[in-house]
Amino acid sequence: MNYNHAEASGHPPCRRLGTRADASAASSEASLSSGPITTKGPIERVDERATSVTDPEPTVFVVDDDPSVRRATERLVRSMGFNVRTFASATEFTDHARVDGPSCLVLDVHLPGLSGLDLQRELARSGVQIPIIFITGRGSIPMSVRAMKEGAVEFLTKPTRPRDLLAAIRAAIERDRASQQARREVDALRERYARLTTREREVLALVVAGRLNKQIASELATTERTIKFHRAHIMEKMGADSIAELVRLAEHLGVAPEG
């Protein structure tokens, strides 16, 4: 399995979300409605830190052991302007999938070997975060509840209306885009925090605790002027324009107040 998720310090190929005329989707809708959608695993998340102004375009991954379903789903997804990659099994997905941007996984529950639900758990255990849309023709309420509790974006039953699938895909892509942006922001914040000296981190923790300069100076056995100097450097390194913003950034980092 190739795991290298952005959150763990990895980063994710993709296409920009977009739509075309409903006419192109109509032909795909016919192919999907002609038979039930059955979608039949872990994944490599490439380093996703921002290196350009624009996000890479989203990719939809489809895992299904039925070739006709894979083809129909691929046509539908491509008709809306998405990148798409299909796999015949969970194992094929875990061995070859590579994500370089916002993405989602359209996954059948019932697969030979590793099932869709098993794959969901495997991805979670490996720290791979990718929104999952389950599709099945033999689902149950307990099954859908379990999938949703473990983070699935949607649980659709077959035959699935293409408009419902596309709506779920759009929601999943936007969810993943937002998650990646949040991770990039936290990564950047951690890099700023890493530039603080040991004494500056001590001062920051006391500032977060609401201590005044005079109180901090007393606790650290130094002068108030020195504390002011440290605070100015902390504000600059952390990119904070006010104490309130500095406190908010510290909370995002989980910096525990001293005392």
List the SSEs and their pairings:
Blueprint: H1 22-33, E1 44-45, E2 59-63, H2 67-79, E3 83-87, H3 90-96, E4 98-99, E5 103-108, H4 116-125, E6 132-136, H5 141-149, E7 154-157, H6 162-194, H7 198-208, H8 213-219, H9 224-238, H10 243-253
Parallel strand pairs: 1-4, 2-3, 2-5, 5-6, 6-7
Helix pairs in contact: 1-2, 7-9, 7-10, 8-9
Helical content class = 40-55%
Would you tell me which CATH topology of the largest domain applies? Rossmann fold
Radius of gyration, in angstroms, nearest whole number: 24 Å
Beta-strand share of residues: 5-15%
Tell me the overall shape.
Answer: elongated
What does this structure look like?
49% of the residues lie in helices and 11% in strands. It is an alpha/beta fold and 259 residues long. It folds into 2 domains: 6-188, Rossmann fold, CATH 3.40.50.2300; 195-253, Orthogonal Bundle (Arc Repressor Mutant, subunit A), CATH 1.10.10.10. The strands form 2 sheets. It has a 5-stranded parallel beta sheet, sandwiched between helices. A two-stranded parallel ribbon has the order 1-4. The longest helix is centred in the C-terminal third of the chain and has 33 residues, at 162-194. The radius of gyration is 24 Å and the shape is elongated. The chain starts with 21 loop residues before the first helix and ends in a 6-residue tail after the last helix. The model is unreliable at 1-53 (pLDDT under 50).
